[in-house]
């Protein structure tokens, strides 16, 4: 998840124009997401992804990232957290609308690779509140927004983390990879 130095994942109106991405980040992320077999999205992020990735590789101006991520997106099992999205034409997509804790814990037991949450601040808040996140893979961007949509919201209990990895990109973004210490 990309965030500002002051902990926001988007501006006050959902702006993400401050996020820095380049081929170096795309290559780094591509290596990691290829280990995952499940992509978890909130409805809004899922609809954004669906509007672009299924055909991104078909464009004559498709970048290396577009081609690689489009291929991955077509193969990965998608899970959407939504109370409003009721069905989808895609056979490789599951919608979770209730019993979040049971459904996510069941996914954790049955899936073989990483379950990766993409964007989706509202879904992230729900997962944090129910203690369902096992780790945080954060891309801290060199910007202070001052206001916006926070990554951490309505936190009730202290959560201890262990830092697994850091990586500094030439564009100034710093990756922080934490695992949640389960007590």
Automatic annotation (TrEMBL):
It comes from the Bacteria. Residues 3-173 form the Bacterial bifunctional deaminase-reductase C-terminal domain. This is Dihydrofolate reductase. SUPFAM superfamilies: Dihydrofolate reductase-like. InterPro entries: DHFR-like_dom_sf (IPR024072), RibDG_C (IPR002734), Riboflavin_Biosynth_HTPR (IPR050765). The lineage of its organism: Bacteria, Pseudomonadati, Bacteroidota, Sphingobacteriia, Sphingobacteriales. One of its GO terms (molecular function) is 5-amino-6-(5-phosphoribosylamino)uracil reductase activity. GO terms for biological process: riboflavin biosynthetic process.
């Amino acid at each position: 998840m990309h965030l500002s130095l002051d902990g926001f994942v988007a501006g006050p109106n959902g702006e993400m124009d401050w996020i820095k991405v380049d081929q170096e980040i795309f290559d780094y992320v591509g290596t990691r997401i290829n280990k995952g077999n499940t992509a978890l999205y909130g409805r809004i992020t899922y609809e954004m992804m669906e509007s672009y990735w299924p055909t991104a590789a078909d464009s004559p101006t498709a970048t290396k990232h577009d081609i690689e991520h489009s291929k991955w997106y077509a193969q990965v099992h998608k899970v959407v957290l939504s109370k409003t999205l009721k069905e989808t034409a895609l056979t490789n997509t599951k919608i979770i609308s209730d019993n979040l804790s049971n459904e996510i814990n069941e996914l954790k037991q049955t899936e073989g690779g990483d379950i990766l949450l993409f964007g989706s601040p509202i879904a992230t808040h729900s997962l944090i509140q129910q203690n369902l996140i096992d780790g945080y893979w954060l891309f801290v961007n060199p910007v202070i927004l001052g206001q916006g949509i926070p990554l951490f919201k309505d936190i009730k209990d202290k959560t201890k983390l262990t830092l697994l990895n850091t990586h500094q990109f030439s564009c100034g973004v710093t990756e922080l990879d934490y695992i949640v210490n389960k007590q």
